[in-house]
């Protein structure tokens, strides 16, 4: 485990609840002076003599002035979130009261915590590994069922256990191979090459699966940019309003009504789709509309999914084939949606576009909208990854896993080509290094400061 870094012998304090006015606020202290500091502010009871994991009600005072009536929660280290002595003061949610309590604790010897410093101390004291610590920030930021589930799974150590098991096995083989070097004159093998090859093969499959999960992890964590595009009057704004169940975009029979992009978020089965209603694609002499069309083309290139919406009464099957060819040439992930089937009837429409992968809807009459939502989810939840698996959502982990994979492939190629043990050991050590970087067993102070600086203050 990482040795204790400098600058963590003092006591820190911060508001642990969301900023602003509220019924209750929680102020958290952590460090060896947490109990003595609070003891001076809580005259009704000697906190130093109280048992851990107990609650105490009373007045909080400073220099003869009562600040508030509070509940003080005691957590003696190492049985606390940070592994240190921790006190949480639950007070009334007035920002003025919060500030008064913070100032009182600082006057008695605490200092303001930096972003993520409580969780950083939990990591340094061995309460969490680095992947679990990072998942705390993801859990706080989770805004859908899927992102919450993924963060909870990582915080409970699902990802860490997989990596820890692999790392322990590789360490064992690395040690045996390096032991062979001490007996090079005897030409002996302590490390069973067959077992090592099998381990590396299985590990390569596991690591590839984790790397492949990053695409879905990115979708779960950040949502999917979904551009609704098509010609003017195809019904794009009507579709947006129908999906959102509100009149978000202006709907008109006049072509070119949408001049700029309109963006809204829709949660479908735990996945956030960032819907973008774009200007209709056509040649126009109108300067403002032309700018809108240019923005539409930009959104198409940036989108994770493009919903190409068209009026089934206006376009032909050949028009759609040309559009499909254009999307495929640009490697665009698209979904064909034929709108306004209520005009000529769905049966006649299907016959007109027979053989094309089109979902037919009537945005105006809300027909087949649920089918469209299901198709959108299918578009991003491809492959054999599902939300019950360990899913990678962190770019840092993704980059390190790619390095691990390359190292394992080098080990495998080395054994195929009969490389000596000392060269195999180098590649195994490289894989171990990057596995350790993910969990925090190999890191440095600057990297930790960067990672935890992205947390909110008070966590």
Automatic annotation (TrEMBL):
Summary of subunit composition and partner proteins: Homodimer. Heterotetramer of two MnmE and two MnmG subunits.
Short name of any one Pfam family annotated for the protein: MnmE_helical
Entry's Gene Ontology molecular function annotations: GTP binding; GTPase activity; identical protein binding; metal ion binding
Primary location recorded for the protein, binned into one broad class: cytoplasm
Subcellular location: Cytoplasm
NCBIfam families: mnmE_trmE_thdF, PRK05291.1-3, small_GTP
Keyword Hydrolase attributed: yes
GO process annotations (BP): tRNA methylation; tRNA wobble uridine modification
Lineage, highest ranks first: Bacteria, Pseudomonadati, Bacteroidota, Chitinophagia, Chitinophagales
HAMAP family linked: GTPase_MnmE
Protein's name according to its UniProt entry: tRNA modification GTPase MnmE
Cellular component terms (Gene Ontology): cytosol
Binding site for GTP: 233-238, 252-258, 277-280
Domain TrmE-type G: 223-381
SUPFAM superfamilies linked: P-loop containing nucleoside triphosphate hydrolases, TrmE connector domain
Entry binding sites for Mg(2+): 237, 258
EC number of this enzyme: 3.6.-.-
Function description: Exhibits a very high intrinsic GTPase hydrolysis rate. Involved in the addition of a carboxymethylaminomethyl (cmnm) group at the wobble position (U34) of certain tRNAs, forming tRNA-cmnm(5)s(2)U34.
InterPro entries tied to this protein: G_TrmE, GTP-bd, GTP-bd_TrmE_N, GTPase_MnmE, MnmE_dom2, MnmE_helical, P-loop_NTPase, Small_GTP-bd
Annotated positions binding (6S)-5-formyl-5,6,7,8-tetrahydrofolate: 28, 88, 127, 459
Keyword Cell cycle recorded: no
Family in the record: Belongs to the TRAFAC class TrmE-Era-EngA-EngB-Septin-like GTPase superfamily. TrmE GTPase family.
Needed co-factor(s): K(+)
Annotated K(+) binding sites: 233, 252, 254, 257
């Amino acid at each position: 485990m990482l040795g204790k870094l400098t600058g963590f012998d003092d006591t820190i304090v911060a508001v642990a609840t969301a900023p602003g006015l509220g019924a209750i606020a929680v102020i958290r202290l952590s460090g060896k002076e947490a109990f003595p500091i609070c003891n001076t502010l809580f005259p009704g009871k000697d906190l130093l003599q109280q048992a851990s994991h107990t609650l105490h009600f009373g007045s909080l005072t400073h220099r003869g002035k009562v600040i508030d009536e509070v509940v003080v929660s005691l957590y003696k280290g190492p049985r606390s979130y940070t592994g240190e002595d921790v006190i949480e003061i639950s007070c009334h949610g007035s920002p003025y009261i919060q500030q008064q309590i913070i100032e009182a604790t600082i006057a008695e010897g605490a200092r303001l915590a930096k972003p993520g410093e409580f969780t950083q101390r939990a990591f340094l004291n061995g309460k969490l590994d680095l992947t679990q610590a990072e998942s705390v920030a993801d859990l706080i930021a989770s805004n859908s069922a899927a992102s919450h589930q993924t963060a909870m799974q990582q915080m409970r150590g699902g990802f860490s256990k997989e990596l820890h098991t692999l790392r322990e096995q590789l360490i064992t083989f690395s040690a045996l191979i390096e032991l062979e070097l001490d007996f090079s004159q005897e030409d002996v093998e302590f490390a069973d090459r067959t077992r090592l090859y099998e381990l590396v093969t299985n590990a390569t499959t596991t690591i590839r699966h984790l790397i492949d999960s990053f695409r879905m992890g990115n979708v779960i964590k950040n949502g999917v940019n979904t551009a609704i595009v098509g010609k003017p009057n195809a019904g794009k704004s009507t579709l947006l309003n129908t999906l959102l169940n509100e009149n978000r975009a202006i709907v008109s029979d006049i072509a070119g009504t949408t001049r700029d992009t309109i963006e809204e978020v829709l949660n479908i089965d735990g996945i956030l789709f960032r819907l973008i209603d774009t200007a209709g694609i056509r040649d126009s002499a109108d300067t403002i509309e032309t700018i809108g069309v240019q923005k539409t083309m930009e959104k198409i290139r940036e989108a994770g999914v493009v919903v190409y919406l068209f009026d089934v009464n206006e376009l032909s099957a050949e028009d759609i084939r040309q559009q499909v060819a254009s999307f495929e040439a640009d490697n665009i992930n698209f979904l064909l949606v034929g709108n306004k089937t209520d005009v000529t009837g769905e049966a006649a429409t299907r016959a007109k576009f027979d053989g094309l992968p089109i979902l037919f809807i009537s945005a105006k009459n809300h027909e087949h909208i649920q089918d469209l939502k299901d198709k959108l989810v299918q578009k991003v939840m491809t492959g054999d990854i599902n939300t019950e698996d360990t899913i990678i959502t962190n770019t840092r982990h993704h980059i390190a896993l790619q390095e691990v994979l390359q190292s394992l492939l080098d080990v495998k190629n080395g054994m195929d080509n009969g490389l000596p043990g000392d060269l195999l050991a180098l590649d195994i050590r490289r894989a171990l290094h990057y596995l350790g970087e993910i969990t925090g067993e190999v890191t440095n102070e600057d990297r930790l400061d960067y990672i935890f600086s992205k947390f909110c203050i008070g966590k």
